[in-house]
């Protein structure tokens, strides 16, 4: 009832421009949807994201839906997805990645995990909805229990160089190793900036027998 009354007086607004949504619009208005800073990347190993990740890990293919930047509309979407409880943004945007990914569908889809404490605090991992949607649409298996975040908020700057390196290597752990052996795995994240986190995850999975690893994200901050 309270929800109904609130809807009556405060109609749902576009996450990007804050204007009330029209009938048929969900989360984002048509104009903002049309204006999204899309990368138009194919799912391949030649785009800028793939090239950036190949420096750090052995990558099969990569794709990003949008460019990410402080003044781009993508940052409002990601902020709402991460910090304002708007979990539904992940699945909505993930749909636009299905078509290019379907040309080389992965066996397994894994979301980049949050540390359990952080997940508890936020109430959800914003990346899981993206990965689940892709798995459903592509017919791949979804696994959020294979890759485990072991390190909570590494305070890199306070550590000595040697400690820092050791620190970085222990960010992720891999469980159920038999499931990933020789498989094509798609790692999913919401935003990729340096590519450091996702490369550590990929390297850890390779260490435990993964066949080939690809990457998909909603937004990518190009150098
Ligand atoms: Zn809008």
Architecture overview:
This protein has a five-stranded parallel β-sheet, sandwiched between helices. Strands 4-5 form a two-stranded antiparallel sheet. The chain is built from nine helices and seven strands, in the order H-H-H-E-H-H-E-H-H-E-E-H-E-E-H-E. The protein folds into two domains: 1-35, no CATH class; 38-220, Rossmann fold (3-Layer(aba) Sandwich), CATH 3.40.50. It has helices at 2-9, 30-34, 48-54, 73-83, 89-101, 116-122, 126-138, 161-169, 196-207, and strands at residues 62-67, 108-111, 141-142, 147-149, 172-174, 184-192, 212-220. With 223 residues, the chain is an alpha/beta fold. Bound molecules: zinc ion. Zinc ion binds at residues 14, 16-17, 19, 28-29, 31-32.
Please name the defining characteristics of this protein:
223 residues, single chain, Rossmann fold, five-stranded parallel β-sheet, alpha/beta, 9 helices, two-stranded antiparallel ribbon, binds zinc ion
